[in-house]
Queue: 4 jobs
Job 1
Amino acid sequence: MRNLIKPVLLVVALLPVSMSVTAEPPHKDTLPPGLQKKADRGEPLPPGWQKKLDGYERGDYLDAEFLRYGRVRDLDDRRQRVEVEDKVYTIIKDTREIVDVLRGRR
């Protein structure tokens, strides 16, 4: 019985440490405050975000941040059109899967 108590106590002692390591980032569901201010003023995305956007293709899943930053319109009960910078994404509403990408000129 004593051999069982030590491992259980060790697990209980380390549980809070492991939970703090897997904590969610502070801006998981929202844009960082500085970026939100820029978005509200209509300024373009920073280069890092633009680079992240350039990698999206048909079949990928659009990050939730772009739904808040871009202009979103419902096409029907299943699909949405998301306009971000010079790109237009048609996505499935429930999963955010990209079904079409239109790119503007640079």
Job 2
Amino acid sequence: MAVAIPDCPAIANNVNSSVMATRPTIGPEGPGPQHFVIPNTRELRAQSVHRLQIGLLGLAIMLLLVGLANIIMDRAKLADGGSESAKAAAASAEKKTGNDPLAVIGAVPSPEATSVQNANPPAGR
């Protein structure tokens, strides 16, 4: 895409530097390099398709990473499944002994006290 530049002595002699920032140099061997070429519709479409491809590739990679993380977490849960019953037994034994520090200092009612009150409702009701 050629840009027609009128013959101007200021451009040909490189006198005005502000004009040089926007127009290419015209020397004895012809016009100099043009720094900015307005893209045509084919180039704009190619850029849009390239951006779309990169975006979809990024989404696909993220989907694969999340799937891989999910598989790893499932395998870790399966491998840790045998010790799950031991953890549950230890937790129930801890609850039975009443090791609730807030209940010990009296900040909240103890679980045993609330279960006894629920088992023996008042006679008036």
Job 3
Amino acid sequence: MKGAELPMNLLVILVIAVIVLIAVVGFFLGIFGQSSSGLSLEATRNNACQKFVSIGGCSNSSIADSISVDKVDCLSEDSAADGYTLTEFATDCYSNVPPETLCSCS
């Protein structure tokens, strides 16, 4: 049985090497990382909140309706005609969180 042992060990090593290779390729292709839509969502939130806070939105939340945001996957199509506002973004993408909470106003 010594002759069968070497090919069996080789087979186990090859299977482990293939699994590791798939994991490394997946890591570099971003399969295990945050999706690009998630990054886009956070970038949109950061940009909109920066505008909101800088023009006094924390003390006047109605300003959120005047701040436009870029289109991201979570926004519904029904408001596309007139552009997207921070209020729509907070409603569609963050489960009806008010803009002042979304942007961490205290």
Job 4
Amino acid sequence: MTHSETETAVLYKRGFNDGYLLAKHAPELSAQLAEIESTSPRIEGMKDGREEYIIEQNKIKEHDNIIEDRDRGLEIERD
């Protein structure tokens, strides 16, 4: 890996982690930052980190809904 590739990877990783944490603690700001048009590795990482947080939260909500439905005795429809 060249120095430039390593630097790009580090910037992306920092952005990813920042984006994840912003989505968790400051979702409004995170949404605004996601609208930025940029090819910066850090910004791209922030967008991807935000998306990862949203995906994880949706999976948690889906799981909670399944458990809630099960506890109420409702049938779960399978595709």
